[in-house]
């Protein structure tokens, strides 16, 4: 699906994220601790906030999530590693903050007492989906079972496999980072998207 340079060439930040998330998730899954890193109101510590964006809790989430992170390496190649690293820190920190706001807003509700927000780099993945939607054009359209689809549809279907509860909040982060990108993400000038 991704034409151009293959592998992690010119995508050192993406390579670091994929390798780190993969290794941390596999080690914690082998220990049986992966689900312990989900964010919940009852178990909220600073180290959990730092490690939580690196841990996928299940094997399907790990496989699909790592594929999406690898697939979205095109944004690092377009913007450069330093600007993409800023994008990663911005989206991850803001989405984690919005998840905390969600937890603290609904802390007295009986609904939230049983909810745990899945760990993993969902903020980065879904913010990248916003960039993918606006910045990557459709190149092939075809009919599948009588429905018009494009090659982008398969990427969206893969994204459903790693979806989490605060999907709307991380999509807002992606829209905000896209508006920042219009000013500085690619060239640092006042470019129009």
Oligomeric composition of the shown chains: single chain
Q: In CATH terms, what is the architecture?
A: Up-down Bundle
Number of strands: 2
Q: What is the straight-line distance between the termini?
A: 24 Å
Q: Characterize the main sheet.
A: 2 strands, antiparallel
General description of the model:
It is a multi-pass membrane protein. Pfam families: Rhomboid. Its main location: membrane. This protein has 193 residues and is mostly helical. It has one domain (12-185): Rhomboid-like fold (Up-down Bundle), CATH 1.20.1540.10. It has helices at 12-31, 46-51, 59-71, 73-79, 81-105, 122-135, 152-160, 167-185; strands at 141-144, 147-150. The chain has a two-stranded antiparallel sheet with strand order 1-2. A hairpin with a 2-residue loop joins β1 (141-144) and β2. The radius of gyration is 17 Å and the shape is globular. Residues 182-186 have low confidence and may be disordered.
Q: What descriptive keywords fit this protein?
A:
8 helices, 193 residues, two-stranded antiparallel sheet, Rhomboid-like fold, mainly alpha
Layout of helices and strands:
Elements: H1 12-31, H2 46-51, H3 59-71, H4 73-79, H5 81-105, H6 122-135, E1 141-144, E2 147-150, H7 152-160, H8 167-185
Helix pairs in contact: 1-3, 4-5, 5-6, 5-8, 6-8
């Amino acid at each position: 699906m991704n034409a151009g340079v293959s592998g992690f060439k010119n995508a050192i930040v993406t390579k670091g994220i994929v390798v780190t998330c993969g290794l941390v998730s596999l080690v914690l899954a082998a220990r049986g601790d992966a689900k312990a890193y989900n964010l919940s109101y009852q178990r909220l510590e600073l180290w959990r906030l730092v490690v939580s964006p690196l841990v996928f809790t299940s094997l399907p989430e790990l496989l699909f999530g790592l594929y999406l992170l690898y697939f979205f390496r095109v944004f690092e190649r377009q913007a450069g590693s330093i600007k993409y690293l800023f994008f990663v820190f911005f989206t991850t920190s803001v989405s984690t903050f919005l998840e905390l706001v969600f937890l603290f807003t609904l802390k007295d509700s009986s609904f939230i007492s049983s909810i745990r927000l899945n760990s993993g780099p969902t903020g980065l993945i879904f913010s990248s989906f916003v960039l993918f939607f606006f910045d990557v054009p459709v190149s092939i359209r075809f009919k599948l079972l009588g429905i018009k689809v494009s090659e982008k549809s398969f990427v969206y279907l893969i994204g459903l496999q790693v979806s989490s509860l605060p999907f709307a909040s991380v999509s807002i982060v992606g829209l905000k980072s896209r508006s920042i990108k219009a000013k500085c993400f690619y060239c640092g000038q006042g470019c129009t998207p």
